[in-house]
Amino acid sequence: MNGTLRKALDRMTSHGVRLGQIRWVELQLEWLAFRNGEVTVCNRTLSRGLGIRVLDGGWGYAASQSVDEPEAVVDRAVRLARAAAPHAYERIEIGKNPPAVGHWRSPCKVDPFTVPLDEKLDWLREATEAMGDVSVASAQTMALKRVTQFVSTEGSDWTQEQVITGVSIGATAVKDGLVQIRTWPKSEDGNVAGRGWEYVLSHDIHDQAPKIAEEARQLLHAPKVPEGEHDIILDSAQLSLQIHESCGHPVEGDRVLGEEMSLAGGSFLQPPQLGERYGSDIVNLYAEGTSVGAAGSFGWDDEGSPATRIPLVEDGRFKGWLSGRESADRLNTPQASAMRADSWTGVPIVRMVNVNLAPGNAGSLDDLVASTERGFLLSRNRAWSIDQLRLNFQFGCEAAYRIEDGEIKGLYRDPVYTGKTPTFWGACDAICGEEEWAQWGWAFCGKGDPMQLIHVSHGCAPARFRKVRLL
Amino acid sequence: MSVLQESRALEIGEAVCRKAGDVPVQATVLLGRNRLTRLGGGVVLHHAEVEDAKVIVRALVGGGEGVAFSNDLSDAGLERVAKQAIETARLAPNLDGRPSLPNEADAGELQGEEIWDEATVEGDPEHEESQLAGALDAAREHHAALAGILCRRGGVRAIVNTSGLRRSGRSTSAYVRFIASCGEGSGHGGALVNRSSDLDLPRLAGHAAAVAYAARAPKSLPAGRYDVVLEPEAVIELLEWFSGIAFGARAWEEGRSFLKGRLGEKVTGSKVSMYDPGPEAQIVPVSFDREGVSRRRVDFIVNGCAGDVVHDRHSAKRNGCSSTGHWAIDERFPVDGPTPGAVVMAAGNDSGDLLDGLDYGLHVHRFHYVNGRLDPQKARMTGLTRDGVFEVRDGQLGEAVRDLRFTENLLEAFERIDGLGDQLHSVATFWSEHGGAYAAPRLRIRDFTFTGTCER
User: Fold this and answer.
1) CB A61 to CB B178 under 8 A?
2) Which of A360, B144, B188, B202 could form a disulfide linkage to B182, CB 3.0–4.6 angstroms apart?
3) Strand pairing partners for B181?
4) Is this complex scored with an ipTM above 0.90?
5) CB-based contact A58 B46, cutoff 8 Å
6) Cβ(A186)–Cβ(A237) below 8 Å
7) Cβ contacts (< 8 Å) between B43 and chain A: which residues?
8) From the DSSP assignment, how many helices (H) and strands (E) are in chain B?
9) What is the pTM of this model?
């Protein structure tokens, strides 16, 4: 324990609070982006500070970049907790956390912050050059290292070092009022993982760049996906977002308790629905903070609970919530160690860890296509929207491939599908096997108010859904 | 003494510049204090206070640019962050189009005044406790549970560069976003203001709760086309996406913006004007951007015709125009080039609630989870209603309606506006912490397209 944390803990103890948690967080972040031959982003960030959370009647949180007077930050947090008491829940139960001591580190072979910048920039530049004639050729990497030191009045004293890296390339073609995009390996800020720079380099972006550029150009001339009900296969990048929005968020315990209404909303799932039908029999979803190398993994969450695994949906039936200590008690459910904060500035709240869909027995993606008489294979996300209860969703994808008699027959543009969460998952009749199963990490999951942005991941394999409405 | 002193921010900036040697460097110093109260389930979940102080160092070497952020403001920390920015700039490819750092003349004359209110930063515990208690009581009176966020913020900015520019300013803001829940219904009460004393929490909570109570047992309506009255909060959700898809220089240069190549041409209904008010804003005015350039008003759409987009110095040089004072940067994520500080839809002349013009239609309080990427050239967007939808019959509010999904080409839909409120209202958005305030009037639109329903 360093001197700052010792001073803060001593002060906390002297206040005699019910619970005190002290986090020292140092965050390093790097974004690099090449766009049309220009470095558009070359940002490196160091942000560090002290975040102090106190339960004493109510909850208080104080955070400061300055560590000159940690006792003053503690005093402020205690004052805020006591000030919250008159209007807080009458009963706040958090159980007992056994003291946690130790160190946890992401599986990282190459520290991304030791790789020379010019090597990274050259690697990205070559990818954009390989795209040829498109309106926008882009390539991007991110690297994050979050070092946390945590002590508490319960006797915990641990440290952890999370390393997150990610990569993406994108090609945008614009012509005659159409804007068409293809990305790889995943849209938005690419695929991210809880691994070192070796993960970034495992992506052959130079090989993929001309392919996505060509497909973006082809999409300008492709027919629009026909409206109507169709069988669809979601590639696993798109399926990961479907899981995120229509399973990960609605099982967050704080949403169910009405604590996230101001920004994110509530949930269509409620405690009486435990055990009820969520999807088809082959749908098995689980939350796992221990998935090796995934973007939502850690040793302990930000209230000091050890990472764990809990079932969310088993054989299609709703089984459990994402929760922290307090929300687990309110929901009378095993606590899921899912209290996370994006930085020292953020109050820990219930967040997704890795929410994974277990593999099925439909073999490879080729096998799944071959077993589909007619439909569309939808690839990677372009637009997303879901209601505040996480029931009515609408996703746009970058591209669709028409399937006829088990074969890919043609490229279509602007696929948009929509549905209701339980109906949609109830129509899932095939999930590819372990050979297709992969983690898909998202750099930014926005939640909380003010919004916190945090990395999560979803392991899944491509899956088929029957009679889905395409717009 | 408050840590939010302009003199302190300027000193930090000057110290960075001294450490840069002969390399052109810009230091943007941001000091901030946020006081937050989060509510949920009808209780206060926590009070929080967060203080941060950070510097963004931008170095230009040849045509290369490097940017580094740090909140380690020790002497060694400033040395490190300056060195990192310079090293990054040396490695970045040279580009002919990179502008130099602005001097005072380049940065332009400052217009407008930013607003500072010490009480917003320091707070008055007794008054705040009374306001909060009043808000919770107001919700209970309508049998509703209150959730939300109350934020009071003070911020100092200083920009110092090696070209001799030295600018600082400080501003305060406060916002509340209450959501009251009752049965199946919810209601919203929110505002963004310059001074926390301008927030009437019991009134806003009472409004949210009254809407929630009225919406507690909604009926379902089929998807289809309905005449609608949109409250300003709903319109602001759309404006945020207009900003993202069309009003920045990068989207314009890359041909993604529907404004590209159409200056002066009609792009939507003639009742529609949208602009970034810059220093003219009534709420959280911002007089200069994070590279120190004076912010200017920019008109994106004027009476339905295409206007300009926002620029920073880099995009302005590429396009042979002047910066509008919209250099945007955020340490958490890559920003898509110059970004409006705020978008305002100009008010019209129609007073009242605009419902009297509807024989049959829907009154929509807010939209949720709007996404504007479906077809940016048409401003085709999808999203959902939330926090209160009501039938309107013969100009009178009727039954509550379950949430609906819209999917609509908004440039076309805005041609069907036949009522434009005469009052602007501002609420906090994701971008509020950068300063500026989105604002919109109430709108009445004919034949708005809803494509989905939200019953199970």
Assistant:
1) no
2) B144
3) B145, B186
4) yes
5) yes
6) yes
7) 87-89
8) 10, 19
9) 0.96
